[in-house]
Amino acid sequence: MSDDEGAARLRADAARNAGQIRVAAIDAFRRHGLGVPLREIAAAAEVSKATIYNRFDGRDGLIDAVIDELIAPDFFEAISRARQCADPWERVVGYVRDHRDLQYREPVFLDVILAEYPNSPRFNAICAAAQEIAESLIEDGHRAGAVRSDFTVGDFHHATVANALVLRHLPKPPRDDYDRRTRFFLDNLRPVQR
Predict the structure, then answer these.
(1) Domains and CATH numbers, the chain
(2) What secondary structure does DSSP assign to 161-181, as a single string?
(3) pTM of the model
(4) Largest pairwise CA distance in the chain
């Protein structure tokens, strides 16, 4: 085997390993969130944990490599739907429902809400987009008189984090019960009638 053939084989092995790691990481993260031990991902990919560090520079690099496939499409679609809605109240309702649906379905989204991996640039971009859309929707809702004036972006953030913590640490409620709580939350965003 020539040096060129050996180098080509090493590149092919490295590409195959990286592909196997990505597939294993996406599967593990989807099921359990971003905190899955790297040794479990390495075992599923049939590589060593060191290979994950060599190919992705550890957990943050691996998160950056796969997060767009995990959560970004659904999350940015929720933002797009909210922005396309003409009615300020319906924008808030649609976004809150989509946002809470992602929390219910996707363990990775709980990690985003809880800001579990602040050293991942792509992860941080998703967090920044979440903050930006929440500010926009609440400000628009205030201007239109559709959202109670004393409800703040900070309130939305705290409610979102509280919901994420409940989903992370308590038994997951049945979906109909979860949706009922979402309706209660939305009902309390309406301006107070005096």
Answers:
(1) 3-58 (1.10.10), 71-187 (1.10.357)
(2) HHHHHHHHHSPPPPHHHHHHH
(3) 0.84
(4) 85
Block residue for tokens 């990481």: 25
Give me 174's structure tokens: 């049945």
| Token reading at 143 | 């201007």
CA angle 169, 173, 175 (to 5 degrees): 135
| C-alpha Rg value of the chain to the nearest Å | 21
- At residue 41, what is the residue type? I
Q: What confidence score (pLDDT) does residue 7 get?
A: 47
What's the one-letter identity of residue 5? E
Torsion of CA 59, 165, 26, 58, to 10 degrees: 0
Supply the DSSP string of 27-43, one letter for each residue.
HHHHHH-TTS-HHHHHH
Among the listed residues 165, 99, 109, 169, the one whose alpha carbon sits nearest the alpha carbon of residue 134: 99
- The mean per-residue pLDDT over the stretch 75-79 comes to 93
